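Box 3.1. Reading complex inputs
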Amino acid sequence: MEILVILVPLALGLGLVGLLAFLWSLRSGQYDDLEGAAWRAIADDEPGEEQRPARPQRT
Amino acid sequence: MQATRDFSHYVRDLGAGLLHIDLAVEGVSCAGCMAKIERGLSSIPEVTLARVNLTDRRVALEWKQGALDPTRFVDRLAELGYKAYPFERVGAETIEAEHSRFLLRCLGVAAFATMNVMMLSVPVWSGGVDMLPAQRDFFHWLSALIALPAAAYAGQPFFRSALRAVRSGNLNMDVPISIGVILALGMSVVETVGHADHAYFDAAIMLLTFLLGGRTLDQRMRLKTRAVAGNLAALKAETAAKFVGADEISEVPVAAIRPGDLVLLRPGERCAVDGTVVEGRSEIDQSLITGETLYAPAGQGTAVYAGTLNISGTLRIRVSAAAEGTLLADIGRLLDNAVQARSRYVRLADRASRLYAPAVHATALVTLLGWLLIGAGWHDAIVTAIAVLIITCPCALGLAIPAVQTVAAGALFKAGVLLNSGDAIERLAGVDRVIFDKTGTLTLPELDVVNSAGIPREVLELAGRLALASHHPVAAAVARASAATSPLKGIVEVPGQGVHGFVDGVEVRLGKPSFCDAKHLVDGDSVRDPEVSLVAFSRGDARHLFAVRQCLRPDAKAVIAALRQRGVAVEILSGDREAAVGAAAQSLGISEWSAGVTPADKVARLEELKQGGSRVLMVGDGLNDAPSLAAAYVSMSPVSATHLSQTTADLVFLGPELKPVLTAIALSRKAHRLMQQNLWLAVVYNLLAVPIAIAGLVTPLIAAAAMSGSSLLVMLNALRAHPRGMSWKSW
């Protein structure tokens, strides 16, 4: 059971890291535009090319 | 006089030579728009950041201080096909956004604590026999270490609200929630110190997580609605042409205008400030203020109010009150009284908790006394009594209403209705009478040509192109009816008369019948309708007459019939003339109507109906409607309404149709039914669990299962508020 001495702080530490990561993401505004973020993930990311013929029109 | 646009009011200095501006953009709806806008704006040199927010429909821009004029962004967006306006977050929205972030932070803390405490609880629950007491104590202490600070932080929204309620001598849902959480944590600490078997850290922190989840969703929906409402205000572009020199004017936002400033009001413009005319002559349309559709003459010394439409001449106005201060004195007084009366409404959730909390606390007390009577020790009796409080802690009750509200607000949003106040859905559900204002509410806010079908296509087209030269609202109606886009060249406007010019060497005129030499065409029929303005068009020897009037909303008749069918009485209260109101009432089939009603009379009529036990939905748009909007049981405004009416109304609807009124009533009735169902579900669930608690058989495992089970049930039931046939992803 001595393993608990390592495992428990490790588990708590990991939880804390997760929490801090969440707080950081909140602070940096990542939850301000949930709708936009959903679209950004699938947007083509090639600046400079203005028009593409085969892009489906979404409205 | 050259007008320049001045955005300096909206530009924020970020320091380090960077400037920031927020623009509200019309028509951004997809990823394609987002990429197009960001690319288009980033290609301007000096721009360091261009980021679209798709939820709020806004663009944030940052650029290096220097030669770049922010109006260039608006022009660039116009080239890309988007209308954009500079935008300033108003106080209420900033507070909501801040609150939303705080809730999310609390939710994050509570969720992480729940996960970790659960991780420690599961071994205790399952390892009962194999576990040494010392190990169990160790796990309990660890849980306390996580749960106590987390609950102290994440519980703030509930504790604060409970404290506020108790201080003002009220009870709300947060009071029993706070008592339950604090007692559960306190008892767990005591039990842990005493090496007992059970601790309830997990149940307490899980309860907070569930409730925070519900509240965060509710808050998000509200924030989204508010953002859209804020954009609409910006898109209405409330600007004024302010004199910055003797003959130099600058287009500035209303927020930057101070009392004492001199502004210019051109024909066709809507006044954004209160003030007095110092120079010029014109006719003004005050229908947004009084409901009266007949134009009033204005000259030196005439007082004009925000919302007034200038018709024919150019006016110089000395500002007496700008933006927020703009309002007629007696309307302001009526409004204050009405707003105070309204705050007496008690929300469904609070009514429920007023019944629920005493019942639960009494049950706990009886349990304590009962166990003492049959000879149990103090410790056991107290532990059992607290277990009753924990198991009845209104987790599901706390979710019952926000969950439905979130789903219903989302559905309303889709139907073009924005919610201003959180309890509007509950109140709207009880409505048994709808009172409409006429001008701008039953009718469309803009004028329309009614006889366009009887006029040859090419004549209409030419008249429309001619009409583009004038800002007069009647001319604007002709231009709209013809869908003309290319103005004619060399057109001269004669103020108060009309416009004229030459096409292919033939003279064309558009304006008053006398101006076009078409008086002989004006016959009895068209004059008899008091609301029609006649405008004549002449080309060479040919003469045509257009009848222009305010038309009823296209679906007004159908909506009113549907309201009747649902058992809702319909009535018109208007400040307009009797003939005009009577005609509208007749064509809509409404038998109860009154004309020439003052704001005070409207409020009196509402009071009278309230005494009679009616619950009235008031739908109106004018400044004269604002007090009655506040006095009514619940109220609605079209988006074209004056600023004041819009902020006073509980709901705002978009678009040219009246249908959102009907949809809103139907949806809120359904939502209200679900809220009540949810409350009953939660109560029944607790009724089942209470006997177990009274018997002293509750373990932390049962408490946790009971809470999550009831919460899930209530959440699932709430989802039924979403109308069928709409896609899930759409909101």
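In summary: Chain A touches chain B through 28 residues (CB under 8 Å).
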